[in-house]
Amino acid sequence: MRTFNDKTIRIIGPFILFLVGTLFFRMNWYLELSSNSIVRSDIIALAAGYTCWNVARWITIRLQKRYPGLANTRYRLIWMGALLPVLVNFAWTIRQVGHMVLNNTPQLSHTLSNYTYAIGIQIFYHCVYFVIYEGSYVLRAWQYTYEQNEHLKKNKLKHQLDTLKAQINPHFLFNSLNSLSMLIHDNPKQAEAFVDEISSVYRYLLRANDQALTTLSQELQFIKSYFQLLKTRYGASIDLLVDVADRFLECRIPPLTLQLLVENAVKHNVMLPDRPLVVEISIRGQSLVVQNNLQRKNTPVLSNQVGLSNISTKYRLLGQPDISIREDNGRFTVVLPLLSAQPETNVLS
């Protein structure tokens, strides 16, 4: 959130209030007091005005730091209301002390009417202080929140577009249909099962953008269907190992996370029957671990990092810790935070 540069208003603000006070509250001084008394009284009024302005400013800024944001506006206003009697009496006191020192006598007689009149003026001044600093803070906080929401909306739309790019891969669809074409001639029964897996996979793909999270159970069920399509094409060159205890199945992750990781592994690694690509999905603590053996292709694969950045963006939009990506000991490992069954997220719907 942008800071409020009040350097100019701290200089001219108290002086403007001094002029307003002179015009509406102290005009009789210029008719009743001597010129020396008027000068001393104006010095007292200006000094007290600058002092009270900065005290109110300091308190308001402290409250904004302790209770930040639009959601805490009510608490800041309650504290301002509670501190107002203290501040206005402090302002009245320093003016009285100033008049005792410079004019050798208090400016006001100790009557209830004079006291309440002076307190009323100070309440007006302090309301102006609070309106300036709290009002500008609320306006800046609202603008910041609006800009953040707009930024999140744009990120979400971009994320959905990237997700679609990663999901509906024409190359993958072409290969799947190609495999299906061969199966129809060679193994009609397997071709029928293959069609069921394709429909299951693409039904899940098309539904994924409608939800921010899915259960680990649903995601694992999907990735097994997706893997069957890969298995039909690559045979013994690829394998999937899943070791997830039942108690974790209701935890949640962003949809298509596993598909993007498997697709990334297939894209960058050599797969041969005697050197199969093995993707392992397991639990470590409260995190989901997806890893595969590294068998880099000799020819570098052009990558725009859409898959991994897509997953990272999803977690960031959910207000969750980022994923961990590591490459060591011939293994590529991604650690994904598991979300509780009813997570509190910041995603815009």
What do you see in this structure?
The longest helix has 56 residues, at 112-167. The chain is an alpha+beta fold and 349 residues long. It has a five-stranded mixed sheet with strand order 2-4-5-7-6, covered by helices on one side. The model is unreliable at 343-349 (pLDDT under 50). The chain has helices at 7-24, 29-32, 35-66, 73-102, 112-167, 170-186, 188-208, 216-234, 257-268, 306-317; strands at 214-215, 238-243, 252-253, 277-284, 287-293, 324-328, 331-337. The two termini are 23 Å apart. A hairpin with a 2-residue loop joins strand 4 and strand 5 (287-293). The chain contains ten helices and seven strands. The chain folds into two domains: 7-153, no CATH class; 168-337, Heat Shock Protein 90.
Summary keywords:
five-stranded mixed β-sheet, about 65% helix, alpha+beta, disordered C terminus, Heat Shock Protein 90, single chain, 2 domains, about 350 residues, rod-shaped, 10 helices, two-stranded antiparallel sheet, phosphorelay sensor kinase activity, Histidine kinase
Structural class: alpha+beta
Which architecture of the largest domain would the CATH scheme give at its second level? 2-Layer Sandwich
Ranges where pLDDT stays below 50 over 5 or more residues in a row are 343-349
Task: Give the number of helices.
Answer: 10
- How many distinct domains? 2
Question: CATH homologous superfamily of the largest domain - what is it?
Answer: Histidine kinase-like ATPase, C-terminal domain
CATH C-level name of the largest domain: Alpha Beta
Rg, rounded, reads 35 Å
CATH fold topology of the largest domain: Heat Shock Protein 90
Number of strands: 7
- Coarse shape: rod-shaped
Percent helix range = 55-70%
Mean pLDDT: 82
* Share of residues in strands: 5-15%
Order of strands, widest sheet: 2-4-5-7-6
